[in-house]
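Q: Could you write out the predicted structure for this multi-component system? I'm mainly interested in how the pieces pack against one another.
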Amino acid sequence: MSKPGSKYHKLCIGTDLSKLQEIRDYITSASKRFGFEDSEAQNIALAVDEACTNLIKYSFKFDDSKKICISIETAKKEFCVNITDNGDPFNPLIVPTPDMNEYFRNMKPGGLGILIMRSVMDDITYLSSTENNEHNILKLKKYLV
Amino acid sequence: MNEPEKFKLNLKTVEDVDCLYLWGYLDAHTAPQLESAISKSLGNGTYKILVNFRELDYISSAGLGVFMAFIEEIRDKGGDIKLTNMKPKVFSIFDLLGFPLLFDIEAEDKSALEKFSFNLNKNNE
């Protein structure tokens, strides 16, 4: 969650895929302000887009009562995007990533989003909702070098 | 107030090739428009598809997935999807996943159209 006084505000959306552009703009702008180059900022925004798309399509199943909130935490060289949601737990880290040679041989779409997230981010963690915490949290981290 | 348009697609037919010109952002929201355009070409019996990316600023896996969804059927029919005029920032996303190995990515329409006329595709080069 963004702490009071944080220079990054929190952005919340429902199940509307048309909000993906707003999310990307928010992440691109925040990551550039933190010091990332354009190409790195684009990659971070792409990873967040993929995470939110997966939630809306596979976890929320377009249920309007579900919501995603995105906030940013920073510490020294670390830029962390927290994606919290109240949908069914969907842990991208346990989804097998496709072997691209096999993938191209079979030519079947799907499963690329998680591979993109893993390729462009330095660290990804996932916390499922519990009795005490109704939200799932996906943390996508990228270090400024 | 209407939201600003995020994606546009124009079709131009050059001989037996359907050329699709993309503009804007191709993501999970807008990818279905590209999907229907390619479906329409296939429905009309056109299996030579050129996709021009000159005005495209962004693609996510939803956009990449559209090409994956059709490429096998198209090549089975002797056609191809050739991609042209990609900005470096869009090419970098294709490159991240190794897509240049599977798809023919040309600098310009001219070379893609020439290859179509010689009936070449990535499979038989």
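A: Regarding packing and overall arrangement: Helices of chain B lie at 31-43, 61-76, 88-96, 109-117.
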